[in-house]
């Protein structure tokens, strides 16, 4: 009957978040032709990314002028502008990574549990935009563990794994959820991995 119950059949041959944001717009016939739905979704995610960058500047305690310059430098980055022009959600991904790094820097100064969890949530969502974010997640998780262990040694206390665990839980949840969703149609637990491999093989780098 031509029905394809796979992730690719549903349009999820790439990380799903941007596709999910585009689907409601693509349901409107007037926005479906000419890729207008994708263009609008890209613009909306770009606006969210600028707001996230402004939030990072605010948490860092920058002045109004410094905040304006920081946000302008982020929004007018040539790579992000080019990605937005061709319908790629790089601004959204960059803002999530920026938020994660901001929370990490906040934890270095205040050791706040909310900062650890915030970094994990940001990179967990980033996984749904770019699978490559798992590399940064691994590096940041190791950094949480190493710094916490170093501080414990200096205080002559037992090593504290809590920061690394709190950071990892949101990421593991997001990855596990996407594994489960990819398994549901055909029982293929890693279908999204094969789809990403095919996209890469044909020259796509947006996975």
What features would you describe in this structure?
- The chain is an all-alpha fold and 207 residues long.
- The chain has ten helices and no strands.
- Helix 3 packs parallel to helix 6 (90-110).
- The protein is flat, with a radius of gyration of 19 Å.
- The chain starts with 15 loop residues before the first helix and ends in a 6-residue tail after the last helix.
- The model is unreliable at 1-5 (pLDDT under 50).
Distinctive features:
207 residues; mainly alpha; flat
Biggest sheet features: none
Low-confidence stretches: 1-5
Computed CA radius of gyration, to the nearest angstrom: 19 Å
The number of helical runs is: 10
Which range does the strand content fall in? under 5%
Shape: flat
Tally of strands: 0
User: If you average the pLDDT, what whole number results?
Assistant: 81
Instruction: Provide the succession of SSEs.
Output: HHHHHHHHHH
Quote the distance from N terminus to C terminus.
Answer: 30 Å
Helicity, as a percent range: over 70%
Structural class: mainly alpha
